[in-house]
Amino acid sequence: MSKANLSFNEMWEKIIACDRKYDGLFYTAVKTTKIYCRPSCRSRKPKKCNVEFYHDLKEVEKAGYRACKRCQPDVEYSPHHLLVTNVITFLVNNYKEKLELKDISNHVGVSSFYLDRLFKQETSETPRTYLEKIRVDKAAYLLANTDYTNLEICYEVGFQSPSNFYKAFRQLKDCSPKEYRTHKR
């Protein structure tokens, strides 16, 4: 399985937000307590300087960390966990591409119908809405941390049209990209 291409700061934002969308893609290890957690763990957040991120469960345990007893990152809750994690990793790594369900299903080796149904059962979302959330998260990160124009960000994160970008952004963030940028700076 390939690892998700996320920067340290992007992963940090995900753990601060307790974002379940990224569970299984990386683990947060705290140097001072020697404990690792899922991104969605509700435990008290460590200082940023005490955090390391790992993309693999074996890797984090080999480094000497033990699993959090609250979020239990070492326990897989579903027999389909690996398939769903592969899909999410594919979406995170390829969000800029024009992706269709058949592209995703071909990548993981199952039918489009089965993938759509299973993914929705496991995450309560379709791959398309999940991809849209990833794109909006990336756009929000770029709005807060770069001077790119809204149009440049729209195409940079994989939206095919500005109207879809603005609609999705407003729906997920409850504000326009311009309002978000003004508020975050």
Automatic annotation (TrEMBL):
Keywords: Activator, DNA-binding, Methyltransferase, Transcription, Transcription regulation, Transferase. InterPro entries: Ada-like_dom_sf, Ada_DNA_repair_Zn-bd, Homeodomain-like_sf, HTH_AraC, Me-P-triester_DNA_alkyl-Trfase. It holds the Pfam family HTH_18. Its cofactor is Zn(2+). Signal peptide: none annotated. Coiled coil: none annotated. Residues 85-183 form the HTH araC/xylS-type domain. SMART domains: HTH_ARAC. The keyword DNA damage does not apply. This is Ada metal-binding domain-containing protein. The lineage of its organism: Bacteria, Bacillati, Bacillota, Bacilli, Bacillales.
